[in-house]
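Quick question about two entries, pasted in order.
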Amino acid sequence: MTEAVEGHVTTEIVMLNPETVRGASNLTSQEFLNQLMSKLGGKNPEETGGFQEAPLAYDAVWALALALNKTVGPLKAKGRRLEDFNYNNQDITAEIYRALNTSSFEGVSGHVVFDAQGSRMAWTLIEQLQGGSYKKIGYFDSTKGNLSWYGNDRWIGPDPPADQTVVIEEFRFLSQKLFVSVSVFAGLGILLGIVCLTFNIYNSNVRYIQNSQPYLNNMTAVGCMMALAAVFPLGLDGHHVHRKQFPVVCQFRLWLLGLGFSLAYGSMFTKIWWVHTVFTKKDDKKEKRKHLEPWKLYATVGVLLVIDVLSLMIWQIVDPLHITVEKFVREAPKGDLDVLIQPLLEHCSSDKMNTWLGVVYGYIYIYLSLPP
């Protein structure tokens, strides 16, 4: 127990002014103490009840005397006297209370002043247990907000203990190894898309390529490359981009994914749709070829692309994406009881994020669920 309480700090009201100030009673604190000791006639102060509180009682009497003295003039102006006081007289009582509450003077216990509730605002003595005994390490004057520190405090360890748990905000970022790995695979996918696109353009005059609608193949390749390219802005966070530029990255992610999906899936969906339409018609071969008109294929992809562009534009104008910070459960690091880690994660979000995602997923679901 002795080891546990060593170094703890206590506070209590100052009952004897530590400064040599001659107050309203024309006595310093030391002169008052000498007079009090002489009145005791050699008795042991520790065995005398109320000895420590004597300065407070002395100043309380002076505060009452000064307050009564201040009420004489105001009461006389109202045609009243202190001698008329009784416990049923509210006017005189209020005047005495007002005078007492506004009292301010130097006493043997320190500066005497009262707060709005009538409580004494005294100095606070700060002590610390050092080696089994209390040592004065400072004073605090609440009336002036002044702290007097002696600098003789001693602590176990290099620094004083924290007065509160320190919360350190720590942003969590994407693993750079994971980002680089996924980026490499995305880059290889984009490179493969470029190879396929080049092959398709170079062999566009080949009959088999012509029959497979090369322009739709090109759009599929471009859409896949755009979707793969979205990996790069999706991996960017506060570790790479300043917070001011982050909303631009958010919009870039959205547009790459949206347009990439519309081009890639829209062109594949269109090819399947029209192939299904042609080969389920009970017409002759000429009629089948007639149904397979290229502009209808491109128009179908264009409609899907226009819907996507319009929805993204409305989203960006009405409720643009911005950076939001998500807070997770605080973590306690090992070996430090005075510190907590507040994990933070940056997100791209908007005020009505769920509504816009519902709109986008809704029309995607509609043309995903259309029969081939």
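Here is the second entry:
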Amino acid sequence: MEDVRDVKGFKGFVERLTLGITRVLEGLPGVTDVRFVEREPAEKRYLLSWEKKNNCLLPEDLRDFYLTTDGFTLSWSSRLEGQPVPLGSMVINSVAKLLPLCQSTLYCLPNAPTLADLDSEEETEGSEDQPEAPHFDSRSRIFELDPCGGNGKVCLVFNNCTPGEEAEQSEVWFLDRALYWHYLTSSFTAYYRLMITHLGLPEWQYNFTPYGPSPQAKQWAYLYRPLTAHSDPHIDPTGEPIVNKLDPSKAFRGKAKQPVPKKKSSAPSAGGTGTPKAQGGSGRQGGTRK
């Protein structure tokens, strides 16, 4: 009985932690192999050690999250031609992997450019719609939340930092593969809900960029998130969605219009239809009389 209660308790915990998304995924057509990785809560001393080491104060919602589970991993696959294909992935790094975003030391030559050299005041200035973009230098402290499967990085960013002082205010930003910043949310809770809502589909973070996800990623979104995918704001100058979509009404529009010119060509002779018919009729009658 204790084992049964433990199983029920764990399922209830997973339901609350994942906002019920595991049950939703299992009900979608073709979805298989939904996996949630169970993790123990992080110890409070680890959180205090991280704050002291990085001179940053974790936001309260992220702190509560780590005290519930030390990171988050949920993945699922889609069955394609009878074979499971890994598709969805939702990841929040553990405290140990919440590391500063820094340049690889593989090519650290004396005169090699650094990430700080990419900063441009024009590109990082804030606007009314979103705050000032992060900097790669000491003005910002950036930590990786989600590696995004190599398609970019979701980062916890502390902006307007002063050397030697503890940073408190944080935001969540997306760094794409071209090293451009895109604002996501002002809090970890908002980002977490956003990740769950997008089902961890490939490249979903690119919905918050001017260019959007790749055509292949959009196809998966049309399949598993049709309501939001059809309201895609990323369109080309002609007003058409930037996605390889098969629309029969458009694809076969030329064939559907082929019979129309034939009908129009016969229309001008409509006024003289009586004469040929009459002539034809008199000819036949004349033939029978003969």
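Reply: The chain has one domain: 2-103+128-245. Residues 2-103+128-245 form a domain with the SMI1/KNR4-like fold (CATH 3.40.1580.10). Hope that helps.
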